[in-house]
Amino acid sequence: MRAYYYDNRDGDPTLPHDSGRQVEPSVLKSMGVLHWSIPVDQEDKWQEEIDQVAREREYKNRDVIESSRSTLGENYSNAMATVWKEHMHDDEEIRYALRGGAYFDVRELPTDTWIRVHVHGGDLLVLPAGIYHRFSLDDGESVKMMRLFKDEPKWIAHYRGPETDTNPRRKEYLATFAGPEAIFVA
């Protein structure tokens, strides 16, 4: 995993958009974004480590998805546009990259600046409920990921706007990671 500030230039979201300014893991952790490096080259070992994380965080279910032009076919453009639009979820978003690469862009607190997190095979990333984020494949345009979740998946995206800014999970996120004074900041 590599994290850096997004360059905010228009253009293809699968390109790096690297500002050249790195982001330390401690900054991500202070925002509730967690990361584990669990190499995928030894299946028995990574399965055990994923199982351990799942037990510790009470994830009961999982599935595996592949996103690429070939797997999504004619739905590729629409699917990528949907996950690229800034949104949040009521539940954590947990992904373990098995193959390929992708970007998770998250909003830094309190600046609201985009931080780009580039994940590859072996990266386990947890985005907390209520964090504004977006997703894109990297320039390889293919990723295979395991999704973990506590119960049944609730992949409802709440797109950023005044109504979502007052969503209870968003308020809880801000109270936890930005302090109580930030609860009503849009």
UniProtKB/TrEMBL annotation:
Cellular compartment(s): Cytoplasm; Nucleus
Keywords of this entry: Amino-acid biosynthesis, Cytoplasm, Dioxygenase, Iron, Metal-binding, Methionine biosynthesis, Nickel, Nucleus, Oxidoreductase
Catalytic reactions on record: 1,2-dihydroxy-5-(methylsulfanyl)pent-1-en-3-one + O2 = 4-methylsulfanyl-2-oxobutanoate + formate + 2 H(+); 1,2-dihydroxy-5-(methylsulfanyl)pent-1-en-3-one + O2 = 3-(methylsulfanyl)propanoate + CO + formate + 2 H(+)
Main location: cytoplasm
Enzyme class name: oxidoreductase
Residues covered by region (Disordered): 1-21
Binding site for Ni(2+): H87, H89, E93, H133
Signal peptide start-end: none
GO biological processes: L-methionine salvage from methylthioadenosine
EC number(s) per entry: 1.13.11.54, 1.13.11.53
GO molecular function: acireductone dioxygenase (Ni2+-requiring) activity; acireductone dioxygenase [iron(II)-requiring] activity; iron ion binding; nickel cation binding
Alphabetical list of PANTHER family matching this protein: ACIREDUCTONE DIOXYGENASE
Function of the protein: Catalyzes 2 different reactions between oxygen and the acireductone 1,2-dihydroxy-3-keto-5-methylthiopentene (DHK-MTPene) depending upon the metal bound in the active site. Fe-containing acireductone dioxygenase (Fe-ARD) produces formate and 2-keto-4-methylthiobutyrate (KMTB), the alpha-ketoacid precursor of methionine in the methionine recycle pathway. Ni-containing acireductone dioxygenase (Ni-ARD) produces methylthiopropionate, carbon monoxide and formate, and does not lie on the methionine recycle pathway.
Protein name per UniProt: Acireductone dioxygenase
Natural source organism: Phanerochaete sordida
